[in-house]
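Priority: medium. Attachment 1 of 2:
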């Protein structure tokens, strides 16, 4: 049994990402996994890292709970819409506020590279796009995916196992969306 954390980065609780979150949860529960969800649209926190790393901001209760869920998870699933080639601002703020030095990684005197404090965890990315997947990956350089896989994952020790892009959201029919929901449920059962 794995402990799965699903992070829904869409700021609208009625979005298709919410349906994707529910489908992943359904599939994961069929595998007898323990599933928790972090839905950013329901959280109350300041997404601005006001002082950078110069001065620590206290984590609000919702961020403390999200951190507890992150620490206890074996597998983290990121679900979000790709906007302007990257994460929604709320999700970027969540990452800025939560994946902090001395929590998710730390620098030591012995190495110029940070020590990975979340080593052993895995992740998966599921994102909706309006552009064709090939264009996003090869022309737009997969900015959001790289941010989660490399900038956050590699620095903190989280190994990404899979990235799924669902496109084109703006042209999708109810039938296509149903297929995507079924696909995401199957992904969760692997």
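Attachment 2 of 2:
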């Amino acid at each position: 049994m794995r402990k799965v954390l699903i992070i829904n980065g869409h700021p609208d609780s009625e979005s298709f990402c919410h349906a994707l979150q529910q489908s992943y949860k359904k599939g994961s529960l069929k595998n007898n996994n323990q599933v928790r969800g972090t839905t950013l649209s329901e959280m109350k926190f300041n997404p601005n890292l006001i002082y950078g790393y110069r001065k620590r901001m206290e984590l609000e209760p919702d961020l403390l709970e999200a951190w507890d869920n992150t620490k206890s998870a074996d597998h983290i699933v990121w679900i979000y819409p790709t906007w302007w080639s990257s994460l929604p601002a709320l999700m970027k703020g969540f990452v800025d506020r939560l994946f902090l030095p001395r929590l998710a990684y730390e620098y030591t005197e012995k190495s110029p590279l940070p020590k990975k404090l979340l080593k052993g965890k895995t992740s998966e990315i599921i994102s909706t796009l309006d552009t064709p997947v090939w264009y996003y990956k090869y022309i737009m350089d997969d900015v959001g995916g790289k941010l989660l896989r490399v900038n956050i994952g590699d620095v903190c020790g989280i190994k990404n196992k899979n990235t799924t892009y669902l496109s084109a959201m703006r042209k999708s029919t109810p039938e296509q969306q149903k297929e995507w929901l079924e696909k995401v449920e199957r992904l969760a059962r692997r």
